[in-house]
Amino acid sequence: MSHDPIQTMGTLTTMTTHELQNVLAIIRESAGLLGDILDANASVRLKHRPKMDEALGHIATQVDRAKKLLDALNRMGHSPDPDVQDACDLALQAQALLHLCQRPARLKEITLQFTPATHPLLVQTPALTVFTEGFAFLRALLDVCPSQSCLEISLDSTPEDHRLVARPSSPGDPKPVLDALPQGRINYHNGTFTLAYPVRQP
Amino acid sequence: MTPISILLIDDEEAFVTTLAERLELRGHKSTVALSGEEGLRCIETARPDVVVLDLRMPGIGGMETLRHIRTIYPTLPVIMLSGHGGEAEIESCLHLGACTYLNKPADLVQLLGAIEDAVAHHGGM
Q: Would you tell me how many other CB atoms lie within 10 Å of the CB of residue A141?
């Protein structure tokens, strides 16, 4: 049994997200069953039927929203797992990070636009490193971006590395972002920041 | 549509009984088992076309249940339906012969698609 604090936090996170996924599954199926029953009795005139449909729609939307957040939290919790200690999929890690950063972006009224990768981007870097560095990178960007601005995040590749690419609509002074990680980890050119990881060798 | 006999193995009773009712409303036959051990016993009596199996349960757990099913009923399709396992766990399930792995809370349309696909492309008991 590991006593490593990060592994412990990861295990507790994944255990809890698993439990919450069960809770969401019960909510989704129960709301779904109510919808099924209403549909099966469509010929019966119910005074509040539109309100019931609307409420069931809200439940479905919020379950989807919570599921995306839990999926992201679960990925974060699995980041210290032994099978992703040497290499991981940058595309999946980035997607999870972006979900978790939507809330701080909304609080600052920054539009966070993410273009996900269409295929895995395997990098020779531990998942936990990608997650913690990626979070520091995004948090620094959200700190410097002004309210009402837009931050575009995408993924890019060269033969040597896969990259997290950030294009703020109002770049401003790049120094606070460049200082978010040790010197040279984040690059800046023509209003675009990049955080690169070496491609996993077969 | 041909009715499908589905065995649902999950220790979350409120979830699995509600899901069973929704499947019944769509014309399928559902049997519920609340543990891996009960699920293995139910296979003989219910003779399901497909099994939907949770991964983490008290007792022998989903992975061990899957291993037993593969040994005793090698052609019976099994769909894993669980909260996220790690990538290694998901890979193990598929390696052990699960048809697919769906994350909870799965959309019913998605689950039904996986069930129909499993029955169409895999054997049965």
A: 25
Residue B89 main-chain phi, psi, to 5 deg: -65, -45
Q: What torsion, rounded to 10 degrees, do the Cα atoms A33, A39, A45, A46 define?
A: 30
How many A-B residue pairs are in contact by the CB < 8 A criterion?
A: 70
Q: Please report residues of B whose CB lies closer than 8 A to that of A20.
A: 83
Q: Which of B11, B80, B87 to mutate to test the interface with A (most CBs of A within 10 A)?
A: B87
Rounded alpha-carbon distances, angstroms, from residue A45 to A39, A48, A155, B10, B85? 12, 9, 52, 37, 45
Minimum distance, in Å, between the CA of residue B120 and any CA atom of chain A? 25
Each residue's pLDDT tens digit, B21-51:
999 999 999 999 999 999 999 999 999 999 9
Q: Which residues of A touch B25 (CB under 8 A)?
A: 33, 36, 40
Rounded CA separation A105/A85 (Å)? 29
ipTM over 0.85: no
